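fwd from M.: "can u put these together and see what the complex looks like"

so here's what she sent:
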Amino acid sequence: MNKKNLTPNAFSKMRSRFFKSVCALPLFAWLLVSILSFQNIKKKKVIFFGDSITQQGAMAGGYISKIDSLCKLDRLSNEFEFVGKGVGGNRVYDLFFRFQEDVLDQKPDIVVVYVGINDVWHKTTSGTGTEFKKFGAFYDKMISQMKAAGIQPVMCTPSVIGEYNDDTNLQDGDLNFYAKWIKEYAAQNNIPLIDLRQTFMGYLDLHNPKNEEKGVLTTDRVHLNAAGNLLVAKEMWDVLKKM
Amino acid sequence: MNKKNLTPNAFSKMRSRFFKSVCALPLFAWLLVSILSFQNIKKKKVIFFGDSITQQGAMAGGYISKIDSLCKLDRLSNEFEFVGKGVGGNRVYDLFFRFQEDVLDQKPDIVVVYVGINDVWHKTTSGTGTEFKKFGAFYDKMISQMKAAGIQPVMCTPSVIGEYNDDTNLQDGDLNFYAKWIKEYAAQNNIPLIDLRQTFMGYLDLHNPKNEEKGVLTTDRVHLNAAGNLLVAKEMWDVLKKM
Amino acid sequence: MNKKNLTPNAFSKMRSRFFKSVCALPLFAWLLVSILSFQNIKKKKVIFFGDSITQQGAMAGGYISKIDSLCKLDRLSNEFEFVGKGVGGNRVYDLFFRFQEDVLDQKPDIVVVYVGINDVWHKTTSGTGTEFKKFGAFYDKMISQMKAAGIQPVMCTPSVIGEYNDDTNLQDGDLNFYAKWIKEYAAQNNIPLIDLRQTFMGYLDLHNPKNEEKGVLTTDRVHLNAAGNLLVAKEMWDVLKKM
Amino acid sequence: MNKKNLTPNAFSKMRSRFFKSVCALPLFAWLLVSILSFQNIKKKKVIFFGDSITQQGAMAGGYISKIDSLCKLDRLSNEFEFVGKGVGGNRVYDLFFRFQEDVLDQKPDIVVVYVGINDVWHKTTSGTGTEFKKFGAFYDKMISQMKAAGIQPVMCTPSVIGEYNDDTNLQDGDLNFYAKWIKEYAAQNNIPLIDLRQTFMGYLDLHNPKNEEKGVLTTDRVHLNAAGNLLVAKEMWDVLKKM
C-alpha cells in the first residue's frame, strides 16, 4: 500500500485507525500491568486461630475487623485476606482437634495462633486446663505441621486474666509461665512473636491508675473491650504488614 | 484290571502302591487343611489403647500379659496378637494426640480403648482433667476414624478412683457420669462394651468387707494390683475371644 | 348456822353467795391452770444454723417459715420459737466464726445445724472447700460447746449438689462421704439426726423421671424451690415436734 | 576508836575489816541491782503462731531456734522467751480454731503470726484453701482479740510457694494478693510487719541465678532449708529485739 495512491478518504480512515491504536495503547498497557499485578499480588491469606477472644475478634469492632481497617488505611487491602477461626473455650488441644479442617485444609499463608488463656484459666474454673508439658507438646505439633505445609506461623503470648498491674491477679504466675515457654519456643524456632502479655502489662502500668481488676482493656478480666481489641489489632498489624 | 490275572509280584506291587496312597491321604489332607487354615487364621491384631493402667498392663503380670495367657489356655494363640499402647497420665485428648502413630499406622484389627480415669482424676489433682463435652468429642472422633479405617473398636468404662463400695469415693459421681456416656455411646453405635466400672463395683461389694479405700483391686486407689489385672483380663478376654 | 332459823332474805343472800362462789370456781381454776401452764410452757427457742439455704429458709416460703406454719397447724405455736441464722456461702468453719454471737449468746434450747454443702461444693468452684478432717474437728467443737451449754443439737446431712438420681452428680461421692461422717457422729453421740440427703435421694428416685439436673427440689442444683423447702420443713418438724 | 592508840595488830585488823567492807560494797550493789533487774526484766513471752514452717521452726536448726541463738548473741536472753505454736497444714481458720488454747490462754506478750501459704496453696492441691474475704475476716478477729487482751501482734507476709524469681510460680499472683492485704492491714492498724515475701524475693533475685524452683531457701518450694530459716530468723529478730 502506497500513501500517494490513497484517496483523501482512505487516508482519513488510516489516520483514524492510527490514532485509535495510539489511544488504545495506554489502555492496553494498563490492562497488561493489571494482569501482571494480579498475578504478583495474590492476596496473603491470614488465619487467626484461637479462642473466644478471636471468635469475638471477627465480629464488628473485634480485633480482626480492626486489622482489616488498618490494612485498608495502609492501602494494602489487596495484599491480605483475613479469616477468623476462633472458638469459645478453646485450649491448645481444642485447636489441635480442629487443626486439619480449620487450618491445613484452608491453605493459609500465615496463621496467627493466639491461645493459652483457657489453658490456664480453666484450671481454677472447672479443673480442665492444660498440663504445662502437654501445652508445649500440642503447640509444637501444630507448628511443625504448619511448617511442613509451607504455612508461616506467628505466635502470641496470652494477654491477661485480670488487669491488676501489681502482679496480684490470681493466675499471673501461671500465665507468665506459659507465656515464657511461648517466647522461648518462638525464639528457638525463629517464629515471629507478638508478645501480647508484655504489651498489655505495659499498657496497664500507664492506664490503670486505680488498679482496677477489669474495664481498661477487658470487659470481664479476659475478653477484650474496644481498647483491648485496638491494642491487639495494632500489635498484630505491625507484625503482619511486614510479612 | 482283574485280580485273578495278576502275578503275585505284580499284585504285591499294586498292594504296596495302594497302601502308599492310603497312607499318603491323611498327610495330604492334613497339609491341605493346614494350608487352608493358615490362610484363614491370619492373627487378629489387638491394640490396647490407654493410660498408665494399660502401660503397666503390658508388663509382666499386667492385664495384657494375662490376656495372652488366657488366650493360650484356650488354644487360640495363633489367632490373636496383643499390643499394648498405654502411656501414663493420658486423657482422651492425649490418646488423640498419638492416635495416628499408635493406632491408625499400626493397622490393627481391634482396638480396646480404656480411658477416662485421668480425665476425671486430674480435675482435682492438677486442674487439668477433660471437660465432659470434649471427652465425648475426642472419643467420637477416634471411634469414627477407626470405623472408617475398618478397625473394630471396643469401649471400656473407667474402673475406679478409690475402692469404697458405698458411693463415697471423692469422684464417684463424675466417674459414673463419664461411664454413663460411654455406655450410651457404645449402645447407640453398636460397639462392643466392657463395663469395667460395673464389674469392679460388683466385685468390691463382695470382696471389700472392711470398706477399704485401696488394696482390693488397686494398689493406690487407681492402678491395678494382681487381682485387678486378672479381673480386667477375664472381662476383656471374654469379649475378645468371640470376635 | 341452821337453815330453819334463816329468814328468807338471809337465806336468799346465802344462796347468792354460794352460787357466786360456785361460779367463780371454774374461773379461778382456769386462771390457776393458765398461770401454771404459762410457767410450764416457756417456748423452746430453736435456732436454724446454716448457709444460704437456711438464709433463704427464713424468708417467705422458706423452710423455716413452713415449719412455723406446720407448728401452728399442730397448735404448738406457743411451745416453739424459730430463729434463722443462715449466711450465704458458709462452711463449717464459717459457722464456728460466728458461733459465739449467733448461737451461744442467743441462749437457744435447740440448734438445728444444716451445713456441709459449701464445704464440698467450693472445692470445685473456688478451691476453698473444707478438708474432711477439719470438717469433723470444727463440727465436733461446736457440738461439744453446745452440750456444755445445755443446748440440744440436731444434725442434718447435706441435701444435694445436683438432682440426678443415678449417682452421676459431680460431687455425689464427696457429699456422701461427709454425710456418712455426720450420720456416724450423730449415732455415736446420741444426737438427733435429720438425714436430708437420704430423704432427697428417695424423693428424686420417685419424682425425677426424666433425670433432670435441677428443678425438682432445687432451682439451681443446690438452693431449694417450694417443693424442696416443704420437704425439708416436714422432715425437720417431724423431729422437732417430739422434742 | 582512835588510830593513834591502836596497836599495829589492831590497826591491821581494822584495816582488814575496812577493806572487807569496801570490797563487799560492789558485790552488794551488784546483788541489789541484779535483784531489782530481775524484777524489772520479766521476760517477754513471744509466741510464733503458724503452720508447718513454724512447726519445723521450733526444731533444731529451725528459725525459732536460730532467733533464740541470735538473742543470746545480743545478750538479751533474759529478756525474751520464745514459744513455737505451729501446726502442719494450718490455714488462718485453723489458727482461729486453736486460738483460745494456743494463744490467749498462754498469756504471751507478743505473737508473731506467720500464715497464708496454705490458704493459697491448698486451693490447687486439695481445693481447701481460704477464700480471700474470709482470710481477712478470721485474721482481723484474732488481731482484735489479741489487742483486747493486751497482746502485741506482729504480722508476716507469706514467704513463697516456688522460688522462681521471674514471677512464674503457679500461685505468685494469689500469694501477692494475700500479702498485699496483710501489708495494708498492718499499716492501717499500726501493727509491726515482717515482709517475708519481699525479703525472699529480694534474696532470690540475687541468689538464684539459675532460676531454680526450689533449693535456695526451701527444700520443696515451701518449707525452709537452713538458709531459709536463717533469713526468717534475722528478719524477725531485727523487729523483735526492738520491742
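replying to her w this: Residues 8-40 of chain A form the longest helix (33 residues).
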